[in-house]
Amino acid sequence: DAGVIQSPRHEVTEMGQEVTLRCKPISGHNSLFWYRQTMMRGLELLIYFNNNVPIDDSGMPEDRFSAKMPNASFSTLKIQPSEPRDSAVYFCASSLEGRGYTFGSGTRLTVV
Amino acid sequence: GQSLEQPSEVTAVEGAIVQINCTYQTSGFYGLSWYQQHDGGAPTFLSYNALDGLEETGRFSSFLSRSDSYGYLLLQELQMKDSASYFCAVNTNAGKSTFGDGTTLTVKP
Fold it and tell me: Residue A53: pLDDT band by 50, 70, 90 thresholds?
C-alpha cells in the first residue's frame, strides 16, 4: 500500500489565487481528515468525512475554504481566494474506524 | 470542546527512559492516541488506548487511566533517532481526534 498520497508537496502562490490540494486515502479506510499545522496553532482539524460524507466542518476557518470527497479514493481542499495567513502545512489523513490515523506527507503552502 | 495538556519539551540521554504525560478534558471519550513527528515530516501513529492499562509495542509503551483523564507515553532505551515531537490525541464519539500541542523530545548522547 502506498499510504495516503497528497499533492502537491509544495505550493507557492500569490495572494488572491485559488489553491487546490489533493488527497488519495488508503484503500478501504472509511474516514478522511484534513488538518492544518502551524507553529502558532499546532495541528488543527479543518474537516472530516465518513464514507465520503462531510461530518464536521466546524474547523474550516472561513468561507474561503471548501472541501469535497466525490468518491472513496479522492478528496480536495480548496482555498479561494488565498491569503498569506493561510500559509501552513496541510495534512490529509485516513483511518478505519478512527483508531489510528495514517497521515500523508503534507502540502507545504506558502502564500505571498 | 476538548483540551489536552502535555509538556512542551523533554530532554534525556541515550539509553535512558522518558515518560511524556498527557491530561485531557473531553466529552464522549473513546480513546487516547500517540503520534510521533520528526522535523519536516508527517505525524506517524504510535499507539492507541481505549481501555485502562498499559499497551506495549517494542521500546514504546502507552498507558491510560480513564478515571483520571490521564495517559502517558513511555520510551525506553532511548536512541538519537527518537528525537522528535510527540503528540497525544483524544478520539471521541464524534469520530474525530483532537491533538495536543506536542512535546519536543531531545535525546542527547
Answer: very high
